[in-house]
Structures are given as structure tokens and as C-alpha cells.
## 1
Amino acid sequence: MLATRVIILIACLILNTSSVGTDAQALKIQEIGPQQAFHITIVGTLSDFEKAPIADAVIGVAPWRASVWQPLTKTLTDGSYSLTVDLQPGGYRLIAGLGEFRVADTFFDVAQREPSTESPRVINLIAEREDAQSDGVPELTPKVALLPPGDFPPSPKKARPPVGPPPPPAPGSQESVRVFYATNRVPLLSPGMYSSREIDQALHYGICTVSIPPTHQPGGLERPSIYRLELVEDVKKHIVITRRDVAADESSFRGQLATAFQQSGSEAFLFVHGYNVDFDDSVRRTAQLFRDLKFNGVPILFSWPGQDAWWRYTPAEDVVENSARQLERFLDSTFRSQRVSAVNIIAHSLGNRVLMAALERIQLRGALQDLRFDNIVLAAPDINIADFADVSRVLQASGNRATIYSSSHDVALTWSHVFHTFPRLGEAPPTRFDRSIDTIDASAVPTDLLGHSYFGDSATVLRDLFLLLGQHLTPDKRSLEVRTVGESRYWLVPNQ
């Protein structure tokens, strides 16, 4: 099934780029209609929400309904493009795509009477932050076909009164979580704020205080929504970072961490996030997981510059090795100097590669004797399945118990697989097994559209994580369903 999906994705990619034109001649891209077509030249740039140019994106034209489109040219290294077409009067959309996914689009029209010597139109496309960082599937570009004869969209109808939101759940109590962090992101001008794209050769330390609203539900990551007409954060409704304290140096950070262990418990909860996660989101996710797992100890975040847009996957991969070296140093210096009874680690997505590389470096130095972890959880690991033997070896040497959560609905991992040839370790059903690793298939759990954050968004998976980390129960005692493959077995999270 996965191979079929991959073939379809690659076929779409070839189809979407094979029709791209590069010359300045007007291309015939539209069915013959009753109206005269006009010679239209469009120039502009494609950039993201940080004003960085996006190169090698396909630019094309679609009717205003965006049912089909014609890819016409590609953006240059500076994000610029130019195209010339003959279009009949009507409404159209200018679309930018990467592969089969839509990056940006905007509406334009061709008037009934276009000037015969009209200057080129300038249309600058901007990829919006909300789309770039959405945990939903990126919108697909339309299928490639001749555009229908030109027409204009109907006049907008009078808007219906908005339907009120559902009643909020019964309120609990306002909670606060202090998240200790180390990051190799470049600091921004505001204290406690860090870049999503630039990597620093030094680690920076601090504490973020996160407010959890009284209406919080397990698995939720409550944020303002434009669809609910929410433009600003509200501590009564949303998970909000309310305070940022930057540590003066590593020694100061370790001192504050030691105090926290004495006050709130001697166990550590360490989270390593995946790609397309900015610093603030990683802090909020750490606080949400810590609270929902009812963890007795101290939440710690290692935040690396995993980029801030789904199309920036390659730049995220480029900083994995450097980030692993920084994480190795953090693990070594922090947990050797702290009196902790247990260290539990959850890594997500591409963050698993950062973690595995760091643990392997520690193992190669022969330094794991005094640095062994209680639980290591790989959630949706974006790791080559061919590296499973190495992953198993490192996990056996590093942790008392290792668990892999996978899902057949993880679209982001399928997309990653298209670019990496081999399946990813987080895909399901699992095909590689080791008796020392508990493999959990979460495919039956309802997820969001992307399915990539099921470990933190699903109350069912959170409950299983709680039984693992909080109650130290083995899979056979956690209401999981056993599945066998030959002499091997794995576990299925039921849809409850």
C-alpha cells in the first residue's frame, strides 16, 4: 500500500513539472471559448513569511475554482519568476507549488477589455506562516489539464450569522508548568526568544513558565484560532508562555535544575521535538505532555533549529548532526551532575535522529556506564528502517526500556519516505522487531489530518504513555492488543 502511494506521489511530481515552460512566448493553456484571449505577462517573487525566497517552486495558473491548473515556470534562486500566457476574460488563481503540494496562491482577473500595451503585472506570492506550520496535510496542487473557458466568480452572497462555538468543557484549575530548556538555536533580540532557522555553536539555557488553562483537555494544545475570532492569547483558554528566564550560564542553569529536582521530584522528563517546530511551540508541547502524563518530576526540553515550514525539510536534516553533538554534551554534563532517580526521554519525528546520533556518540566514547536512562520513547521516528539494527544496539545500551510508537496514518513520514527511498521506522505496520524494544502500532487511534502528532494529541496514546512512564507497566498490562508476525510480536493501541 505504501509503495503504491509513493508511486502515485512521484508520478504527480513528474506530471506537475513536465509541463513547465521556460520561454517568454505566450502558452496556449485554455480551451477555446466565446471570448477573445488577451496576452498577459506576470512577473513577481515567491517568498515565505520570513521574506526568504523560495527557489525551484512551480508557478502556474488555475481558474478561480482551482479545479485544474497549468504549471508554467519555476522560481529562480532569488524567488523571482516570469510567465506569459493567453487568457480569456475571467477570474484566475496564481499558484505556487513544491512537488505536488501548494505553497501559496492568490486571485487575479483578466478584464473584458485589456489594454493592448499593458505592462507586466507584478504579483508577489507569500507562503503564509499558518499553512507552513500547520499540522494538517499541505493542500495539493490541482490536476494538470487545459483550463476551461474564462468566467468570473459569482457575486458574494450575504454572509450567514456565524454559528456559536460548542460550550466549553467544565473548567478545572489554572495550572503552571516550568519548562527547563537547552537550545542550540540562535537567540533573537528579545530575551528567551530563539530562531527557527539558524544554528548556534553554543548552547543557551533558561526556564519558560507555561500556563495551562482551566478548560484544558488531555491531548489538546489550545491556541488562538482565527476561526473562533481569537486574535490574542488568553490564559483562561490557551496554553501560554507567561514568563521567560534566561540562565546566565550553564552553571547557573544546573543550580536551578538541582533545586527543582529537590522540590518537585527526582525524575526527569526530557523532550526532543521534531522538524517544523518553532521554539515556543516546542515549549508549549513539553508543558502539555508533562501535565497530561501527570509526571512527577521536572520537564526538560532540548530544542534544536528544526525549521519552521514543511518545505524546509532538507535544511532541518542539515542541522541534525550538529544538534546531536550539542545534545550529547547536554546529556553528559547535565545528568552526570544531577541526583536523579530516573531520566525518561521522548523524541518525536526527526528529533529521533538527533537523539539516536547523540546516544551513539556517547556509546562510542564508552561513557554510558554512568549515564543510563529509564525509558526511551521514539514517537513517529523519522529514521531509515534499514538502520534498525543500529538503533536497537544503541537503545539496548542506553535505556532500561525502549518503546517505538508508529502509525500507518502518518502522512509526514510517508512524505519523508518519498525523498529517502526506504520506509521510515515510524510507519506501520511494523516490519522490524527486537525483543528488547516494545513496538506499539497507534494506527487505530483517531488523529488529526496529518496524523504526525498522534502521540501528543491522542488521549488514548497519552494514557498508554502514562501507564508506561508513570506506572512502569509492561505492554501486556496496559490494555493493548497483541499482534504476531512469525515469532515476533507487537502491540496495537485500541480505538477507545
## 2
Amino acid sequence: MHPASDEICNHFFTEPTFVPLATPPSRLDNGERLLASDIRTLRKARGLKLAEIALKLGRSVGWVSQVERGLSMPSIGDLGALAALFDVPVSLFFSHDVPEECERGVIVRGARRRLLGTSETGLVEELLSPDLSGSFEMLRSVFAPGAELKVEATRQTEEAGYVVSGTFEIEIAGVWHRLGPGDSFRFEAKPFRWRNPGNEPAVVIWVVSPPVY
């Protein structure tokens, strides 16, 4: 049997309301544990309290706590609301499936990466980390030709990147740096922007600590 995310996704679509889990926490499906862990990590990374999440979602604090502990399963509508609240694609909450149970939380196969973003935004990212429960996350970021982050972003994280291919420019604390294949960067809690001035996609392996995405 292969009970991970296929069962979870089917459960989302057939049960559109909040459903308490009858399974004790120690026996929960590993995919359900990872979903709960991802939601808790995203909330903490944004400095939000349980009460704030509950208020924004129109839910009780108890319900949010149960979701984060894997005791209650959110509906597909709840996941959409959480994604909007955390400013992440709802696809982040799916695709916890693994070909072998021994690989869960350890290995990510190339064909099973969680896709974040769309080509329309100029940035498509794939989550290389198995989940968001660790001290950092690793992403494969593909920047389309001409794509750019026009408004500076600042987050309370330490970040590093390695340019695999293409031309990639990043502004860190007001200073622009032009990078090519083999170049890398690192910064911590500093304003940054990026752009791809080239005619081909720029591929960057990006590491963020703690996870925010």
C-alpha cells in the first residue's frame, strides 16, 4: 500500500469541512505530520500567534492548534485561506508523496519536487528540501529573461545562493552584484532585489534559514 499524500488529497476533495482525526497523533500518516509541520513553520516564520491566525480565518484558536499538531485536517478551502494568509502558493501544501516510505523527510526525487510560482511571474521555484521542518530550506529558482524584483525585500533570515547557469544580478544593501555560473552569494537580514538581464533563464540554488516558504 502507498497511503501518503494520495489519501490526503482525496480526503481534502471529498470532505470539504474540518474533520477531527480519529487516529492518535503517534499513529498519524507521515504526510499529515509534514502538512501540520509546514503550517506551524510558516506561522512562526511570520511571527504570527495562534489567535491572529484564528481571527483571520474565522476559526477558533483550538482548531488552529489542532491543525498544527496534526489532530485536525483542514479542508481545501482552509488550505487556500492559509496559503493566502502566508503569501505562498497552495501547491506548497500538497505533493508530500514519496516512492518509498524510507525516503520521507530525507530524499526529494527530481520528478516529485513541489513547484512554487508560475512562468507568468518570471520566477519558478522548486522546493528541494523534503519539508519546512528543518533549520533551513533549499530551493531551485529559475529566473526568466528580463524578470526582476522591483521593490526591495527584507526578511529576518540568512540566505545564500549558487548560480548554476545564466546571468544573475542581485542588489544587497544597495550594492548591485553581477553573477555568472559558479558564483555564489550570502547575506543576512539585509534588503535585496534581483534581476535577470540576460537572454536565457538564470538558475540559482537558493538556501534560506529559517524556512519562510
## 3
Amino acid sequence: MSLIPLRPLLDHAAQNGYGVCALNVNDMEQIQAIMEAARATQSPVIIQASRGARKFTNDLFLKHLMLAASELYPEIPIVMHQDHGNSPDTCISAIRMGFTSVMMDGSLEDDAKTPSGYDYNVAVTREVVNVAHRFGVSVEGELGCLGSLEHGTGEKEDGHGAEGKLTLDQLLTDPDQAVDFVKRTGIDALAVAMGTSHGAYKFSRKPTGDVLAMTRIEEIHKKIPNCHLVMHGSSSVPQDLVGIINKYGGKIKETYGVPVEEIQRGIRAGVRKINVDTDNRLAITGAIRKAFSDKPEEFDPRYYLAPARAAMQKVCEERMRQFGQAGQAPKVPVVTTDQMAKDYAAGKFGENARPDASAKAHVGKGGGVSAMAH
């Protein structure tokens, strides 16, 4: 099965009431773990790469690893997604490398750390939609800045994230503004800010409504029920995985993630894409630390990479079942980017999603330096 765009997968998820975990990768072993989990659970998958991952792996390696995955697992629908594009250039370079979905994070300026203004966000996101939809590539946008409601700051991870203190208006997506944003940009999915953040250190205690505003998702869904919502920073930070790392020499401080039951609550309120990365990193790290401790004389990378890959696969399988995507792979419609381009142009997904033939490139701070030369 060829790689598919994000939109038809999320449409199917909405029609059938499930969510899809979006899993970050940097190397072959992580892709193998995801694909084995997908086969074991018969789940469609979203595999995503950040700018940092693209730089670490190199685009050509990443592209051909993904093509290998689609060839080796022909029964699994796969979305190849650019995570947190900082500029139109980054997103366009991803499209040129064969990504079937891109995220334009216009909530920050192209330095990936300075909160942007609303008009800037609309302009750069619409610019990406105009390009991406011409090629049948789906677009995720973001409104509001990811960060902690506990201490009012952004959470930088992998070179991306707001720095310094943020206002409550920046940390929580405004439902009325979300309506306008979706209408003006024509995006396929909207990432919302509601207290989640990247990395392991999300909450100092098990989160309650004052620091994890699930009600904000529900309010937004009521305003735009046909828009697919996205939860970023949604690893659950399992205590058993933290425990394994610390047992074998790690020093992870006490921390809490997003409870699975809260994510399931979000799925019932229109969340269709759930970003999970930290949980897999914890699983990999714990397995490697244990392998080193068990046999310190070993030096064959396969000795510690095999259990690391298996540990990540276990987490992926758990999330696939918990989010409801298990068993859905055979049912997801296979839509090519060529067909999607025709559908966008024909207005199948609404007039606002149709590429504007008269659009001009955004002038000013939009279109910064891409992740890789293109």
C-alpha cells in the first residue's frame, strides 16, 4: 500500500469514533517497532519526523525507510507527516521529499521560539495550504502555544517551543478564534493548546482540570464539530518505564504525563491525532540501560537495540488499542495524493480547502530557513 495523506485517515477515524497515535521517529529501529505494532494490531499509522529528526537521519534515508515500510507492510495505511514545521520553506521541502502530510506551526515565528501574532499564523498557514493541497498533501495547523498551565511557560523540545513566560490567552486556544482560523486557512486538522507540553516533564502531579484543560477541547469541538483536533505532547509517561530507567542508573525526576483516560475523553470530543514520542523514548532508554547492566561485557549493538525495539513496539501496541485504531487498517480508504489534489481542487473538502490560484507567497517573516536544503 502506498503512503496516504492524513485527511482521509482522520475522516475515517471521525466516522468511526477512534483516534490515531502519531509516532515520532529518528531511525530504522523506531520505524520497525511502529510497523510491527501496526501489523500485530491491524492499525493504520501516522509516522512523523521533526526538523531535528530530519537533520539527524537525513531526508533521503528517512524517505527510503518509509518507502521500505510501505513495501514490507502493504496492508497498513501509512501517513508520513512533518511534525512542527517552523516555516513554509520547511513544509515545502518535506512535500518535495515525499511527505504526505505537513504541520505548519505558525503559533511561533520561524525561529521556532517566539510566539507569533494571529495574522502571521493565518498567513503562513494559508500559504502552506495553498501549496500542499495542490499536491494532495494534508496540512495540520496550530493555534495557541504549547506550554505548562502550572507555571505559565513554554516547553522547548528538539529545538522547537516557546521560550519564557506566556499569557493564559497564549496557553489556551480560543474557541471563537479557532472557528475563524479554520475557515481562513482551510487546514485539515487543528492542534490546540490546553496545557500539554513536549518532553517528559509535563506535570508535577497527576493532572487535574486546572492544568489539563480538557474542557477547552470540548468547547472547541462544539464550535467546529467537523474539524479534526490534534493533541500534542500527549505521552502518558508511564511510571513503570521511568522506574526501569532509574533502576539501572537513570535520574528521571518525579513527573507525570497525560493520563490515557483523558486522551480517550479527548477522542470522544473530536481529537483524531494524538502525538506520542516521550513514552517511546522512555521505553527504548530503559531497555538499553537494562541490557547494559545485565551484560556489561556486550558491545554488539544488536544486543541492546533488539530489546529497545521490542519495548517501543509494546508501547505502540498499547496506545493503538487504547485509542481505538486497532483493527481499522483494512477499513481505511486508500486515497493517493494525486486523487486528493483533484478532490481539493474540486472543493470536496470545502471551498476554504481549495488552493487559491491567485495566492502570493507571504511576505515578511514567513518562509524561513528549511530543515534541509532543497
